[in-house]
């Protein structure tokens, strides 16, 4: 798809702000933390002996592969469904298409095979068992969200490579690995697959795979509109007003006032300590606020229980989310966590 084939998702289209060759956030100008701040965090964590071991393991269940495979082949009869594979990787089946978010199947979230954050729970669906993927949605280029080995395997999947939908600046990374169908988007731009529209939406985060490329590629979330399901994938983000604005922009698409996304995939982990993480990762209470901002009928908490990235225990986010949902008065089942490998079947959207 050429640049002039990308379309703004709204008449008041405004892309991501920039400063020279670097992208910026909208609500503030957060920068990646300095080396001094990183050292302060790690020294303090070592002094306090955190993160502490989880009291219970991350829940797992055997994936329903017969359903996933039959559903992928069902075409117009596809049942909307979301399967948590682990961390920010979710298989969403809707509108006759299979979407995969931030594919990360490797043992470590690192440029090194022998060092860096190690996976505590295997992927809920093995990469070679994932049904054919039509579109891969990549939120940004951090190693726990963009994994070269996983992308390489998807390029070789049976039935042909998927379309990769990515933020600005990431196309060359994919092309160097042999990907031909890569669509780069700015915030609020969209691309289509058949009658499905995929929109890159703002998030408050940052990018970089090394010390020299920080903020040089964009980051974001995705709003996806199919005939059967409208879903939102937040990627990695701190809390900002982008989410309430998003609902206003898409209100007509949702079917009018009071309606929002049928499904939202919202991070609930990697949030402690708040002085270090607040502007780049939401905590469970802020995740609940995003759920309400985008008027989601159902949200799934992701980005927890797989990689030990921050100071909270691996099993803390679901308990903190349960308390946040109770305090916010959410109905049971409105914001849930899944076991790794579990599939949530969703109702078809009725206009």
Report the CATH architecture: 4-Layer Sandwich
Shape by Cα distribution = globular
Q: How many discrete structural domains? A: 1
Please identify the structural class as seen in this structure: alpha/beta
Q: Largest sheet at a glance?
A: 8 strands, mixed
Summed up, the helix count is: 8
Task: Write up what this structure looks like.
With 351 residues, this protein is of the alpha/beta class. The chain has a single domain, classed as Metallo-beta-lactamase, Chain A. The chain has 8 helices and 17 strands. The strands form 3 sheets. The protein has an 8-stranded mixed sheet, covered by helices on one side. The protein has a 7-stranded mixed sheet with strand order 9-8-7-6-5-4-17. Strands 2-3 form a two-stranded antiparallel ribbon. Helix 4 (171-175) links the parallel strand 8 (163-167) and strand 9. Helix 7 crosses helix 8 (316-328). The radius of gyration is 19 Å and the shape is globular. The two termini are 30 Å apart. The model has no long low-confidence stretch (mean pLDDT 93).
